[in-house]
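Feature request, filed as a ticket because there's no other form

It would be nice if the structure record came with a short human-readable summary line next to the tokens. Right now we just get the raw output. Example of a typical job, pasted below so the devs can see what we mean:
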Amino acid sequence: MAKRHIWLALRLALYILLALGGIALFQDRLLYFPDTPPPAAVLADAKRDGLAPWPGADDYRGLLREPVGPVRGTVVLFHGNAGHAGHRGWYADELTRLGLRVILAEYPGYGPRSGKLGEASFVADAVQTLEAVRRSYPGPLILAGESIGAGVAAAAYARSPDGVAALLLITPFDTLENAARHHVPWAPVRWLLRDRYDNLANLAAWRGRTAVVVAEQDTIVPARFGRALFDALPQPKRLWTLPAADHNDWSDRIDAAWWRSAVDFLLPPQSQ
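Raw output as currently delivered:
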């Protein structure tokens, strides 16, 4: 009987080691879900949706839409971990109506872009994107990020803070470690994760205006992690908790009036 118990314990230990090894080896596949259509398809869809390749088709870093009339500022959006930037055209629909220029930033390894998946690659590229934005467009700059994109925005700010007027963080977490531990509480997440996306550390020096949006019923990034980040940030800040919303349907719970109130908070008239 003792030998049988030992054998069962060894088998269990082996299964756990295999599971941990799988997480360690394949965590990029668990974290990133890029859609990689050919460039021609991305550009054709963008044209249909009123978006232009930015800075251009030969140096593609994302998609651009200009507002009609005076420009209040520029929003650079870092999207979540699935799809590609062209799937976020509806942000441009909402924000250009309010006088904001919108750049839907694309990650290396997503859409038509080559490159390595991962935090180091994404953040280094995001810093280059912000530098290009500053060279091309004066005026207030809002960094926006959804889900893991909030982590990219926070890390890009930490490395390149100049000129950032406000942050819009949608379904964010405080740290990726905490969010990951929620899903695999039995795993030593701290030791397994290569990508950290530590928003608390990256925004420790932030003193601008922040809007945080959490989905009340979020099953991917539970709302408590977004609230923890919000609590750690300085004033001025504003938190929106969207009732009954989940991670991927939060936008169904807001309307044009909500977007106007959020933008007016982020860019009050005296800051424009």
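Something like this underneath would help us a lot:
The first strand starts at residue 33 and ends at 34.
The domain at 33-271 is CATH 3.40.50.1820 (Rossmann fold).
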